Amino acid sequence: MTLLLGIIYVAFISLGLPDALLGAAWPSIQGELGVPVSYAGIISIIISGGTIISSLLSDTLTKKLGTGRVTAVSVAVTAGALWGFSVSDSLWMLCVIALPYGLGAGAVDAALNNYVALHYEARHMSWLHCFWGIGASIGPYIMGACLVGGLPWTGGYQIISVLQMALTAVLFATLYLWKGSRAEEEEQGERRSMGLLEVFGLSGAKEAMISFFCYCGLEQTTGLWAASYMVLNRGISASAAAKWASLFYLGITAGRFVCGFITMKLNDRNMVRLGQAVAVAGIVLLTLPLGQVMTGVGLVMVGVGCAPVYPALLHETPDNFGEDLSQAIMGMQMACAYVGTMVMPSLFGMISGRVGIWLYPFYLLGIVAVMVLMVERLNGLKKAR
């Protein structure tokens, strides 16, 4: 089990590696292909769409193949897509390859999160998502090092593709570990697959889906628009705003490391509440005219507040819905999370264009308010069972 857990940790780093690559490479890609800057959004939407589709299919895939095989095959698909990106010389090629790029991420994300929720303590869920953050930070660093070193953007994609291929080989070589862990194949055989409408009709499912939608909407909106808010509404320099915005993500990653220890004292439900309270306190600081430092501190607090929410919500899925239904629920939750990532930042962009960027912290408060309401309704339904 120790070796398997180590492989899962490495797999979570691998999950994060490609996530921020497009943003880091796009200025070079856009210049080489001669397309508008905004076209990065088209590729991003296709990737997200593939991720949503594979998340929704994760229950069926995991039942048929098992978590180990789903993980290995998904990483292999991602590795191939990354290499495909590196040899693309047109926008349409990037768009075509973006679909398997996304498909490879969704199923493995849902399968691994459910497996960890079933088999390991809450601290591991928190630390694993901390490792995802490390991977998401390493990816742009590799791309940046390639560009600074005189290599084309394709080199960054190829390096990470090779890393993914190496992990694929390790995953296939260690499939026997998954079979021996609580008789995975037997569990998969006993579990009944459920249709999407059937899953959505379960008591508490809607509340759980909306909670995940709101959480990822909060995280992505905060990160995407933080620097713009600080520059346009607080008069902070662009360079300083960029540094504070990066600290938001550092707050999430470092917060998840610390929260792994706090989970030894608090259960999942209270970890979610603690995170929400810290996030609200940080957002309140963003609304107050207290100067650059306190605005930055508020932003970091929102990141720290986000840290425990996502891992804790994931980890309590089997407890909320039962082990036999957790994979089906997990896939739906992940799909809703990705939809939140796509919709909420863009929606704020449209609203702020008409109303003003000053609305930023109030928009975030609205998201948190809905999330708190849904989480507490889910807790209430669980008590009533």
Overall body shape: globular
User: Which segments are poorly predicted (pLDDT under 50) over 5 or more consecutive residues?
Assistant: none
Written as H for each helix and E for each strand, in order along the chain, the element string is HHHHHHHHHHHHHHHHHH
Question: Sheet bearing the most strands, described?
Answer: none
Distance between the termini: 33 Å
Estimate percent helicity. over 70%
Bin the strand percentage.
under 5%
Mean pLDDT: 86
- Give the count of helical stretches: 18
Count of DSSP strands: 0
Integer-rounded radius of gyration? 20 Å
SS-derived structural category: mainly alpha
Structural features:
385 residues; mainly alpha; 0% strand; globular
In short:
Helix content is 85%, strand content 0%. The protein is built from 18 helices and no strands.
How would you describe the overall organization of this protein?
The protein has 385 residues and is an all-alpha fold. It is 85% helix and 0% strand. Helix 3 runs parallel beside helix 6 and helix 4 (58-65) packs antiparallel against helix 17. It is globular. The two termini are 33 Å apart. The model has no long low-confidence stretch (mean pLDDT 86).
